[in-house]
Amino acid sequence: MLCLSLVIIMIGNTSLNVALPSLSEQLRATNSQLQWMVDGYSLMFAGLLFGAANFGDRYGRKGILQFGLLLFGGATGYAAFLADGAGQLIAARVVMGAGAAMVMPATLSIITNIFPAEERARAVAIWAGVSGAGAAIGPLLSGLVLEHFEWSAVFAVNLPFVLLALLLGASMVPRSRGEHDSPLDIVGAILSAVALSSIVYAIIEAPSRGWLGSSTMAVGSVGLLAAVTFVLWELHVEHPMLDVRLFRIAGFGISSLILTMTFFALMGMFFSMTQMLQLVWGYSPLEAAVRLLPISAGVMLAAPRSARLAERFGKSRVVAAGMWMVAGGILTASVTRVDSSYLVLITGLFVMALGMGTAMSPTTDLLMSTVPRKQSGMGSAMNDTTRELGGSLGVAVFGSVLASRYVAGLSGAIETFPDRAQEGITGSLAGALRVAGGAPDAPGRALVVAARAAWMDGFRLSMLVAAVVVGAAGLVAWRFLPDTAMDLPLAEDLSADELRWAENISEVGGPGGGVPHPGEAGQGSR
Questions:
Q1: Helix, strand, coil: what percent of the chain each, to 5?
Q2: In this structure, is residue 446 part of a structural domain?
Q3: Is the residue at 402 inside a domain?
């Protein structure tokens, strides 16, 4: 039942990408609305993850798991049967993200508490495998459904599984809760949500409102101010949602950056690729989903071998090489044109996926090994949050760079169309193709050629920006990422007590070796 709940959440997270062209066509959604359909889910997921995990530990994991499934199922049902516009669908996705934030950490917490120590590693490995399988199944299931039904069926197909998970959970999942009742950090949760949503909002809306427009700058400034306030609050509150002191340890801070950048590239590519395959190259939703399978294959091929490579060459070298492979794969994919062969695209995507698989496992291991045992839940939540935050930023940055270049590239090709038609053309590629379909033959064909060329120009620019960002992350990994939990180039910045605590990680062999973090001694349980 726990694995079923996890599969439901992962399918909900990845299935929408293949449906984006259909949503753009049938709901007349603009580029920014498509971005919000994806990011609304991810942002709510990331913003509530720490608080939901803490709430489950305090009041009961089974209860929050069941409530999360109810919330997710209710929003899914609304999206499937009641939502008839882009705004309503975005709202449903936001609520789905809130439900997912309650379900995902609860499944892992329950597993780690009901299995004995000798079986726990195997159970967690199965949990991780199911998570990856669900992420891979999502696009395929979405493509298969869209071959025969409208976009709403992408949501409806999930409902029977949600109902089954609720019924099985009520009878099969044992009740459990944490040993200590740490108070919820409500202020921290609000500040983090405001910071994330404001920054992403500014990035997504910038192409239509202007990168230096007053609303863009104002909302972006609010996000940055909220982020700074969040850090200051977490440093001084007795029971923080996220102990930001952990970022002073290179193994935690740099690993978090690498994981964020990995999913920045992955989800940004998914957002762009599904539209390119369907709207530029003319593949069906199922054909597009099948052509993206090599990404999952590359990650699954490289990930199991990365630990052995890290032991031989060191984590910093292996992770840096992985990130540079990601950047190289993105650069290879960026040369794709309207008339290019699929082989060119998939070569780049497969190299990118191999790099992701190479980088993710060592960084995840290092992140978790540098967290004190009593804060392992925080480490697990951070591990999940980096993925959702990276994905949100990837969709926002890829989509906004692409949209800005797309609109600029069309400026001289749409002057003969009425103002209302121009709004549809610049709103999205699907809108341009829809206007072209209703135009006279010659202008319509010219618009299709111009719109696809402008979109591909935006695609290439977004790839170049992403390659630079990911390549820079590789340099950071090469320079600062420790090869063990205590090979810390940043150790000189730690206090003597913090340094001694961090050293104990490698000397004793466990997260913190049972030694509390400096500042925890004498405070009792945090």
A1: 80, 0, 20
A2: no
A3: no
